[in-house]
Amino acid sequence: MENTYYFEKAPIAKAVAHFSLPMMLGMSVSVIYTILNAYFIGLLHDSVMMTAITLTIPVLAVLMALGNLIGVGAGTFISRLLGEKKLQQIKEVSSFSFYASIALGIIAMLVGLFATNSITSGLGASAAAFDYTKQYILVMIIGAPFIILNFSLEQLVRAEGSAIVSMVGMFISVGINLILDPIFIFACHWGVPGVAIATLIGNIGAVLYYSWHIVRKSEYLTFSIKYFKIKKSVVFEVLKIGIPIALMSALMGLTALVFNNFAASYGDAAVASYGISQRILQFPELIIMGLCEGVVPLIAYNFTANKQRMKSTITFTTLTVAIIAAIFAILVFLTGDHLVGIFTADAQLIELGSYVIKVIFLSLFVTGFTFLIIGIFQATGQGKAAMIMSLTQGLIMIPVLFIMSSIAGFHGIIWSIFIGDFLTFIIGISVLYVLRNKLTVNIEELQLD
Prior knowledge:
Layout: H1 2-8, H2 12-42, H3 47-55, H4 57-83, H5 87-114, H6 116-122, H7 130-142, H8 144-159, H9 163-187, H10 191-216, H11 232-264, H12 268-294, H13 296-305, H14 307-341, H15 347-379, H16 383-395, H17 397-434, H18 436-440
């Protein structure tokens, strides 16, 4: 079996590449998609529409978090069960995850339909942007079951070792979106709702593809109702990892909101320089995140099957993260002003942006290792450790921002990004050190928290 070969026998570098490259490619494509989405709306030269699609980003983030609530927890559990050859349990977990994702989607849809106006106002939509923003949100809410199911199923197919299938599903979603965007925006003149409908149909396309794979191709996963059981042990294993991951997404959104408010107090140039730097950082950050998320099934499988192979995987991935971060950091330090110049011709903004981007890119080293540490906690079922990291990564930036802003003003705000990321990394390493014996004992002796 090809999947088992990569889990058990392939050279470490080859196994990591098999699991991570598709994830890295998929995430890279998603960045291009978000840029082009904004590009198509930008061609209409309507700043209100552009504002509306920007304001609605948190809605998709929440639906993604709900999908990961089930998908990440179930996925890592399935990989551990696969390492133990508990195939019957895998079928029960995958069936539970499928129906739980649909149920969660229906609940989100019903709640969202009752609270659409409140959500739109809460996102900060002005009177001019209110209707556009509401239209986008309504499409997302109606499609919530499919969007949540897409993110959940993507995690499940990766968990069984089908990394290529995971990547193809991402490509299908993005491809459908990119084809339909210009049709709905320019040919049908649907504007913002057209962008939302294209996004929803892209998600539905990915769900259909993942479902086809699971029904027709998968040896381990199933949707069969006969395997659907609400067992306390299964629900616990899924949610103890899923809840921290969903919480992390929510808290990081809160931190971003607080940071933007701090930066805004120093004027538009400060916000713009940070925004440009974040866009540039997004590409290498998602590549590293794709690497670290990609190896989670490999680590999870060997956590229960082969501890030495698990350690070798972690060591190799750590070295790869360091190399990728170093390459991108060197590029930024040599060409920072030119990179910022791609986005603006304003000399003052280029000067400020090149300073900001160099400080922010220092964080790439520590955030890369933090992603890996979080992935290790997910893979090995360490619910308490995952929760600690969720709270730390989500909340530590806020007090750092207040302290650094009062000490060094705008420079303090920018450096708070690196300081917050560094403190999160130190806490992660400390928790990993405390759990070192728990993560390396034989499976017979293991007591999961």
